[in-house]
Amino acid sequence: MYAITGITGKVGGTLARSLLAAGQPVRAIVRDAAKGEAWKQLGCEVALAAMEDSAALAKAFAGATAVFILPPPDFNPEPGYPQARAVIDSVAAALETARPGKVLCLSTIGADALHDNLLSQRTLMETALEALPLPVTFLRPGWFLDNVSWDVAPARDTGVVQSFLMPLDKPFPMVASEDVGRTAAALIQQDWTGTRIVELEGPARVSPNDLAAAFAKVLGKPVKAVAVPRETWELLFRSQGMKNPTPRMRMLDGFNEGWIAFADASRTIKGSTDAMAVIAGLVG
């Protein structure tokens, strides 16, 4: 039995569907019974548990061959990451109690960064789970190509996509969520011991200019990338409702300055979905 958290999202959903297609039993862990109904119709067992509810999670993890952990994102965290820490404590305690056969956790590029930033929430998760007496794999994907969904309307309407990644010709490790889910499905069915780290990016690195060119080709009109000046970020993010924009800004600094990166090529694998395919799907 494969117990899957985050199954209602793109990555968790692709993972679960891949396992079902392979004839594997899946337990869908959801916090809302209504959201589990569709998975029940597909043949999944459904367990109700919030990520902050350690007792419910332990029950959902019990007897599992493997558990997939997808921590909920918090893009506007309070100082010290209290919400992330509550989830981490709950998940770690539940795994300690349930003792599933193995654990696959969706982490991120930058989980090994030396400077505090938005992705440090995954650093905390990795630290907690690697201390458990269980085989654990941390899957660290690059920047999600699916983030360009925010750029579809501006590209179509104005021919401009704004970029916080810069310089505009710098290629970054990016990956499609579909590739992350499919890779997770392959990894979780493998056997391993101890802790391992797998880094994942797409077939080629992608610059902001490359994204604009892909939009232009898909839309059939000129599209250009424009860098958002660093000095405007804080005011802009606060105007969008962020109370603590510093972690997000430091994450972007990490990509732009190069201290958020894949440093060990021996543990990096590549997906098959390129930026053009993702953008074409979003525009379509």
Brief summary of the model shown:
The protein is α/β, with parallel strands linked by helices. The protein is built from 11 helices and 12 strands. The strands form 3 sheets. Strands 3-2-1-4-5-6-10-12 form an 8-stranded parallel β-sheet, sandwiched between helices.
Write out key terms for the chains shown:
single chain, 284 residues, alpha/beta, Rossmann fold, 8-stranded parallel beta sheet, two-stranded parallel sheet
Structure, explained:
There is one protein chain. The protein has a domain at 2-144 and 174-202 and 261-271: NAD(P)-binding Rossmann-like Domain (Rossmann fold), CATH 3.40.50.720. The protein is an alpha/beta fold and 284 residues long. Strand 2 (26-30), helix 2 (33-41) and strand 3 form a beta-alpha-beta unit. The protein has helices spanning 10-21, 33-41, 54-61, 82-98, 120-130, 152-158, 177-188, 208-219, 233-239, 246-257, 275-283; strands spanning 2-4, 26-30, 45-48, 66-69, 103-106, 136-141, 143-144, 160-163, 174-175, 195-201, 224-227, 268-270. The protein is globular and about 55 Å long. Helices cover 41% and strands 17% of the residues. The protein contains eleven helices and twelve strands. Helix 3 packs across helix 4 (82-98) and helix 8 packs across helix 11. The longest helix is centred in the first third of the chain and has 17 residues, at 82-98. The strands form three sheets. An eight-stranded parallel β-sheet has the order 3-2-1-4-5-6-10-12, with helices on both faces. The mean pLDDT is 97.
CATH architectural group of the domain at 2-144 and 174-202 and 261-271: 3-Layer(aba) Sandwich
Strand order of the largest sheet: 3-2-1-4-5-6-10-12
Helix content estimate: 40-55%
Structural class by secondary-structure content: alpha/beta
